[in-house]
Amino acid sequence: MNIADYGFAIWETFYVTVLSTAFALVLGLPLGVLLVAGDKDGILPLPGWLMHLINIVINILRSVPFLILMICVFPLTRAIVGTTVGTKATIVPLVVAAFPFVARLVETSLRELDEGVVEAAQSMGATPFQIITKVMIPECLPGLISSMTTALTTILGYSAMSGVIGGGGLGKIALSYGYYRYQTNIMIVCVVLLVLMVQAFQSVGTLWATKSDKRLRK
Amino acid sequence: MIELKYLSKTFQMKDGAVKALQNINLTIPDGAIYGIIGMSGAGKSTLVRCINLLERPTGGSVVIDGVAMETLSPASLRKRRREITMIFQQFNLLMQRTCLKNVCFPMELAGVKKAEAEKRAMELLEMVGLPDKANAYPAQLSGGQKQRIAIARALATNPKVLLCDEATSALDPNTTHSILTLIKDINRKLGITVVVITHQMSVVEEICDSVAILDGGVVVEQGSVQEIFANPKTAAAKRLVAPNGGSAARDLSCFAPDDHVVRVTFNGSSTAKPLVASLAAEKGILVSVLSADTRDLSGQCYGSMLLKLPAELAVAQQAMEYMRSQSGVTVEEVTGI
């Protein structure tokens, strides 16, 4: 193990985490919006049974342990990536595990919004789509950025676990050198590097969220 | 013209139905400033939300300029709402947008080009007296300034009707006054019909032409502000006009039986002539004011006063005769004479 190996592992962990978060956001954001908008008092009420079903599916996906979920989605991974091993292949289970979580985070953020603002937009003749894109999301942006930071750090933790199915990155090194070969010092280095990455993501996320919040007086 | 016809709204709650509004019939003429007043829970907010159909009435009809609002398709209702805008107690500005962008917002929804929208938004900020706040965020403004921005925003789409839902209830008396002055100005300059929802009689008194009193989801009284003030018929109206039973209705048992005490009621007499002073100047009769609760409504005096007249019977009767001869004044003996 040399510096370059660590460097490459950091890069692998980084891109897997960021890509997975991005895909999870692509799926989780609309779903989170749907959970709020589709509510019976929401701006686009959906049938109660449908909302119930969506909630159950999200809860199921969130309660399956990540290790088991990884194995369960093998067919899906093979269909999308073409293989079930390797760094790229870990993105699929990460996204499947993360998007319901992201949807919940989005839902929580959006529910913070004062109903009065939505009512004001309705009184001006805004369509439900305009309310979502011009009111709900922009008004909740600082909260959403904070939520995405949480998602990113959680996915980073999950990605370390994907070493088990042949994914690369710091998790793999910690597992195959540190654990299987009893090289505790390598494991410690990997853990320290993961901690530093989480710190970095969190600091940037918090700073961005604060900067973007116009409710705070200067 | 806004016509509410047999308007009803019933909320289905877990523990039964709540009748928020029952058979409301109101006609609000174009260009009026119409007050809808009531205690909390009387249904006033529900009523105003029925006008732009933020609440869908469960019965009756909301007819604006001949069009029954509840029959409109969602798309045409949205279009219609641009003509019936609203301001709120909590302002409901978009906190992540600058003031200029807030005023641009309804135009953005309506598909107005950005440059054009910003130009008009600047004009509106000018009109509400806050052109220097264009690039400030709502969090940096005071309550009164926020409401001004909200008013500018409400005017952006050239509405015909402005609905004010407790628009001054979160503001201090001075700011309330300045916002009401602005609303009155807008009503005069642009001819916009204004519907004012409030629980404060002082607001109605200051800007409204006509008023409806809402109590328990029913309109118990309606008419011109002067009429209602001078002669509140229902308990709800009396409670609003004189919240403590009126200071002039004070306990009479404290007067000696031979005191001459009269209640003078002003029913729209001119405030230009000072009654008590002219009684002294013209007749040389001095009376003392025991209590008074009068209001000036556009130069007309309404309310009542309790006066103690001189002990000598002839003089007291002369004083009463003099006061009775004034227009818009009624004199009623309370004790003594």
Topology:
The complex is a heterodimer of chains A (218) and B (337).
Chain A: H1 3-37, H2 48-63, H3 66-72, H4 74-81, H5 91-111, H6 115-123, H7 128-139, H8 141-161, H9 170-179, H10 184-212
Helix pairs in contact in A: 1-5, 1-8, 1-9, 2-5, 3-5, 5-8, 6-7, 8-10, 9-10
Chain B: E1 2-13, E2 16-28, E3 33-37, H1 44-51, E4 59-64, E5 67-68, H2 74-81, E6 84-88, H3 99-109, H4 114-127, H5 143-155, E7 161-165, H6 173-190, E8 193-198, H7 201-207, E9 210-215, E10 218-224, H8 225-230, H9 235-241, E11 260-270, H10 275-283, E12 288-297, E13 300-309, H11 313-324, E14 329-335
Parallel strand pairs in B: 3-8, 3-9, 6-7, 7-8
Antiparallel strand pairs in B: 1-2, 1-4, 4-5, 9-10, 11-13, 11-14, 12-13
Protein name (chain B): ATP-binding cassette domain-containing protein
Organism (chain B): Faecalibacterium tardum
Domain ABC transporter (chain B): 2-241
Give me the CATH fold name of chain A: MetI-like fold
What name goes with the CATH superfamily of chain A? MetI-like
Count of runs of 4 or more consecutive helical residues of chain B: 11
What is the count of β-strands of chain A?
A: 0
* Largest β-sheet summary of chain B: 6 strands, mixed
Whole-number mean pLDDT of chain A:
91
